[in-house]
């Protein structure tokens, strides 16, 4: 069975490790980590990913800019994007969704909720 | 052929047709007779096996009633077993949810402690403590205080949500934070925000072997966080011990590194 490739773009190593822990429960998944928006853009441009989990507040390039750039590229615009952020205001959510994010999750995260959203976007049981 | 002969021939044909119909009818009658005989034999067989007297009928009735009772009993027992299995199933489902939650909580605690002990750089440890409090607890405004043992004063060394200079220093034993640290007891109030930087909603003393080295004070939770969960209390307990140990070890290491460099400098000076 082909592996689902997941990209985590998050500057906090703690959050990255926690997300990796949660996502490892999925079958046939390969997880790649990026530590900021620029690193994320480089990885997503050079390789195929089935889904991207992106934080908003990051150094070098923030998550919203990364989403905008991804949605502007023909070969990247189809990748489902889940935003995971501390920003819980409705305007932040609306802005991210307007830019092309598929889902918006706020911290502190619930591993089950993250799994549920990722499974739904990957269309896996 | 004369007319009489023709007439006779025609009547003979009519008679033959009539005779043929009669033969077919006889064959059908014989078949029907055979079918009825078989049916009669079946009835006779049934009659022989069935009750032949009121006593037999009564016996049969009792046997049937017993069979019905036995089936009803079996049915009730199966129903009871089904209810029991459904209950067990629901208990297992509930237990699964609890274990899942426990698993997630343990993952959070594991990640937090793993990260805390992943470095010996004091600044890096402070950064990791902040990451844990932001991402795992969901705090919006908080500060990490370190205790100056000579002045017995807690001073904020790192913060989130407000500039670190905005957090006033606290004397050990005075105010909410000072009292919590002096008694070495983590305190948590049932509220999500305090705009007064002398009135934290959570105080977590940082202790190493009974010795306080500082504290974490939370003043506001993220807007989407409605209150504290059992995991938050576990995280506060973990931070109280592990964050303190990580900070203490990193500071000791940093001091020893500095001392080592100084000694090495002297040695270099003396040998060159």
Q: What would you note in describing this structure?
A:
- The complex is a heterodimer of chains A (125) and B (272).
- With 125 residues, chain A is of the alpha/beta class.
- In chain A, 42% of the residues lie in helices and 20% in strands.
- Chain A contains 5 helices and 5 strands.
- A 5-stranded parallel β-sheet of chain A has the order 2-1-3-4-5, with helices on both faces.
- In chain A, strand 3, helix 3 (63-72) and strand 4 (81-85) form a beta-alpha-beta unit.
- The radius of gyration of chain A is 13 Å and the shape is globular.
- Chain B has 272 residues and is α+β, with helices and mostly antiparallel strands.
- Among the domains of chain B are: 1-42; 117-260, 2-Layer Sandwich (Beta-Lactamase).
- Chain B is built from 5 helices and 6 strands, in the order αααβββαβββα.
- In chain B, a hairpin with a 4-residue loop joins strand 1 (139-148) and strand 2.
- Chains A and B meet through helix 1 of A and helix 2 and helix 3 of B.
Q: How would you write the strand order of the largest sheet of chain A?
A: 2-1-3-4-5
CATH superfamily of the domain at 117-260 in chain B: GAF domain
Largest interface: A-B, 18 and 23 residues
Would you tell me the structural class of the helices and strands of chain B?
A: alpha+beta
How many structural domains does the protein architecture of chain A include? 1
Number of strands of chain A: 5
Strand content of chain A: 15-25%
Strand order of the largest sheet of chain B: 3-2-1-6-5-4
* Global structural class of chain A: alpha/beta
